[in-house]
């Protein structure tokens, strides 16, 4: 992906997704709606794990998936229709069994502003029962090897 190298990322080497804010992404206030930001976080999360080999076919073969258990979003500045944005993400934690975390940063390269910072946590679940389940070996290997240090990771409850 051709991303502006002048972006001040919170962590090194993000997986990125380029976004152009569409008119239908905006709300009555004229800026991107908070629901749209959540969709962008989900879009990049799937693209990132699939790029690491954690494909939907692997999910189906193992019968397991990582379900979002919490998302924290800080809206720092608004995005408007026509804005060109770059969303970066990193895997920032895996407990070796059930839980993982990921961090996000949404930047508008034209002015260098960070518009959003977010963190999500995930728990492995059995796709049939929807109950917590130990992450399969394949997930554990991918999540462990792709996790970066220094980010906002898992916290002890």
Explain what you see.
By secondary structure, the chain is α+β, with helices and mostly antiparallel strands. Helices cover 22% and strands 34% of the residues. It has helices at 34-51, 56-62, 137-146; strands spanning 15-20, 64-75, 84-94, 99-108, 113-126. It has a 5-stranded antiparallel beta sheet. A hairpin with a 4-residue loop joins strand 4 and strand 5 (113-126). Keywords: Hydrolase. This is Thioesterase superfamily protein.
Radius of gyration, whole Å: 16 Å
How many E strands? 5
Query: How many structural domains can be distinguished in the coordinates?
Result: 1
Order of helices and strands: EHHEEEEH
Shape: globular
Q: Which parts are unreliable, with pLDDT below 50 for 5 consecutive residues or more?
A: none
Question: How would you summarize the topology of this molecule?
Answer:
Blueprint: E1 15-20, H1 34-51, H2 56-62, E2 64-75, E3 84-94, E4 99-108, E5 113-126, H3 137-146
InterPro entries: 4-hydroxybenzoyl-CoA_TE, HotDog_dom_sf
Keywords: Hydrolase
Pfam families: 4HBT_2
Provide key terms for this protein.
4-hydroxybenzoyl-CoA_TE; hydrolase; HotDog_dom_sf; Thiol Ester Dehydrase, Chain A; alpha+beta; five-stranded antiparallel β-sheet; 157 residues; Thioesterase superfamily protein
Brief description of this entry?
With 157 residues, this protein is α+β, with helices and mostly antiparallel strands.
